[in-house]
Structure formats: C-alpha cells, structure tokens
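Person: I keep going back and forth on a fold encoding question. Show me how you would write down a chain together with its backbone fold. Please set it down just below, with no commentary around it:
Helper:
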Amino acid sequence: MGIGNRAARRRIGIAAASGLVATAVAVALAGTAGAATTSAAAGATARAAGAPAAAGYQFVTLGSTHDTTFNQLLGINDSGLIAGYFGSGAKGHPNKGYELRAPYAQGDVVSENFPGSVQTQVTGLNDHGDTVGFFSTQNTATMNNNNFGFYKLNGQGFHEVNFPTTDNQKPPVDQLLGINNHDVAVGFYLNGAGNARGYTYNINTKKFAMVTKPGAPGGIAAPSLTAAAINNHGDVAGFYVVNAKSGATDGFLKLSNGVFVKIAVPGAASTAVLGLNDSDWAVGFYTTSGGATHGFIFRLGHGYTTNVDDPNGVGTTTLNGINDENDLVGFYTNPSGSITFGLLAYVKF
C-alpha cells in the first residue's frame, strides 16, 4: 500500500530511483515552525545523511525525467498514489499529466492525458484511484489558453466537466482540482470579468453546487473564490480574494454544516489552501511581504505549523496535497527559479 502503510513507508523512505529525479532530505516539525536538519541523496550520488525527529517529515524530490526542469506534484491518496504533471506550460513546453506509484522509480510514472489535448494536468485523486484535472487544446506564447475540467473513474475513460454558465471568460477556463471517495469533485471557472467561481460537482448525480463565502456579496460583486480540495465529510477548502486591488488572498475551510473558517497565516501577505484530509488538516502556501513562499499546515482547532519547506527550497515551497496519513506533496524551485521540483514529504515513525 505504499506510504499509506507504515511498514512499507520505512521501506521506501528514499525512492529506489531508476533514472528518477529523487533526493531525500529531512525536516522536523517543532511547535509552530519546521526546522531543517540534514540531508541525503537517493541513487548513486550521496550527501550527508541524518535522521529526522520522530515527529518530523522526510522530504523526497520526485518527478518524471521526461522533463527535469519542471515537475509539480498535486495530490496524494492513502495508498501513496500521486497525481502530477511536468512541463511549464510555456510555448513548446506543454503540461503533461501523470500518476506516480510507489516505490516511485521512473517505471512507476504512468502518463495520463486527456485524448486529443495539447496540455493536461492531473490535479487530484481519491482512494479508489479516480482522478480529476483539466486540459487545454492550446499552448500559446501568451499562456492564455482554454481550460476544461475532466474526471476519470477506475482508470476507465475520460469525461469532460464544465460549469454550466453563459458568463465565461474568453478563452474559457474551467478546472477540477480535487475529488473525494464519494466522487464529489471541486473546482472553479472564471466568469466574464475574470473572477473565479468555486463549485462542487457530484459525478454520480451530475449536479453542480456553488461554493461561496457566507455573508459575502453575491452575483458579480462576489469575491473571486476557488474551491481546491474536498474531504470525505464534504468539507471544502480553498482560497478567496480579500483585496481586489492587490490580489491578496485568504484560505478557507467550509465545513459540511456550513461553518466557514478563515485560514490566514499570521503576518502573511497572502494565504492559499490547496489540500485537505479527513482530519481537517489543510495545507497550502503563504507569501511574505518580501516575496518568499512557504508551505504550511493548518489543523482545525489547533492552529498553524508554518515554514513547512523542503530544505532545498526554503522560501519557494508550495504544499498541494495531504492524505489521511498526513503525507504531503507539492513543489519548490531552485534559487534562481529556473527549475521546479516535485516534492513528497512523509511522516517518519
């Protein structure tokens, strides 16, 4: 069962890489901040090795060697199956989706691209292996491409999903970003004014429902809001614009009973939630006034763990997904910003 199984987790602490981009480092979480410790490399090249604290995370850099300059890992299920993509989306450098299975060698990368598409991102998956994402038929120099949502159940067939509206941005942008075990997906579309409108989509009933902030204006005056993740209780997480002029955002957790919890890292310029598990642990990133980007964990009723960064990407880390074992996926960049690496962080026992 991959890293979803504690015994197996010890076996694959550092991927048995076969041409896979793979580097392992350790971070211990203490109080409200993660502190970098020592690091080790997978495969033939080795650096100084060190064991993290029992409550810490072991970070592993993972990605497809089809593109060693750009990989992002976006979702992880309880069996350790990871959703992601390579390619920056720049002209001639299209997004290409994939799934990555434990033990995360290059042969464990399985392509997943919407038929006939030019670009695809696999953005989320559940414990049944059902996946969601979005695709484009374009790869323009401006990167102003059309986007259409999709889901795929049990590895069988792709289905396009787009919110039913006549008020679309041009070109249209519609993305599915997460899915739970009940096959309820979340995502957003951009309206004609370019504002995001979050929604849920029940694959079984084919019904859509808007995700809104209680008390906020409705209609065209509603804040731009993206629904990014959903757990098996029907709790939805994401982010919304709190300052239209600056684009500053806060994260949110909207419980199935309608309670809306604002998630804003203290002192941050912006906060966004991108992943959620069944214990209402939310993950994402926050930015500082100086422009740094840090990963964080928010635990409902417990507060924040900040600076959850890959030690190779302190200040450039984004956390995208979390499973019920509290394993994390995301990405970071090198100091110059020229290379984007996918990351897996799993709990050490």
About this structure: The two ends are 16 Å apart (CA to CA). Helices lie at 6-11.
